[in-house]
Design brief:
alpha/beta, 7 helices, 5 strands
Length: 195
């Protein structure tokens, strides 16, 4: 079986790679994440995925489209995280399945199944629907047991490890009750500063 694996980030991919290799599954990672914002976060996650794939010899398909505008248009009228997440999951799974079909893969799956932060039941339901719509098999799994080992691998490889799911809504939810990155200096400007 040739599998196209939607890859949300290098950390989740690090855990799933070993599981797929144990089962001798021929897979290619596929970075399609128009939900990740802001732009620098998107670039960090893409670069970390590229570095992991290069070091581990994992083939990689990339959609480097930064999808801020389209993503916001799709979710702006949906007030709750579950509604937005459903739109986001369906989009990424649908794009992955379409690409898999175009490239001649036998099946698709996603590293979202490795994250304790994701709604596993919702991901599975939507993937099943996408599978029915496209006629392409979905490889279902529960890879959440790889999460701790994946974080260790990412640490050892000095890969970027994100602090929130991906979209600006999840960034807000992650940091709204913290003082992280707030300026704590005095009123004087450092010498040589302008503006």
């Amino acid at each position: 079986m040739r599998l196209l694996l939607h890859t949300c980030c290098a950390v989740c991919l690090a855990g799933v790679t070993g599981k797929l290799r144990e089962r001798q599954i021929d897979f290619t990672a596929c970075f399609i994440n128009p939900n990740v914002h802001p732009l620098l976060e998107f670039r960090r996650r893409l670069k970390a995925t590229q570095v992991f794939c290069e070091r581990e010899g994992v083939p990689l398909e990339i959609d480097a489209t930064y999808g801020l505008v389209d993503f916001l248009r799709a979710v702006v009228n949906h007030e709750t995280a579950p509604e937005r997440c459903e739109i986001c999951y369906r989009d990424r799974l649908g794009r992955t399945a379409a690409r898999a079909k175009t490239l001649g893969f036998d099946a698709f799956s996603t590293t979202l199944l490795a994250s304790a932060e994701q709604d596993l039941d919702l991901v599975r339901r939507l993937a099943s629907e996408v599978s029915s719509e496209t006629g392409l098999a979905f490889m279902d799994a529960d890879w959440r047991d790889t999460h701790d080992a994946a974080k260790d691998i990412a640490r050892r490889m000095s890969l970027y490890r994100q602090q929130y799911c991906g979209c600006i809504y999840s960034e807000y939810d992650r940091y709204k009750d913290t003082a992280k990155h707030l300026y704590r200096g005095g009123t004087e400007r450092p010498s040589g500063s302008t503006g």
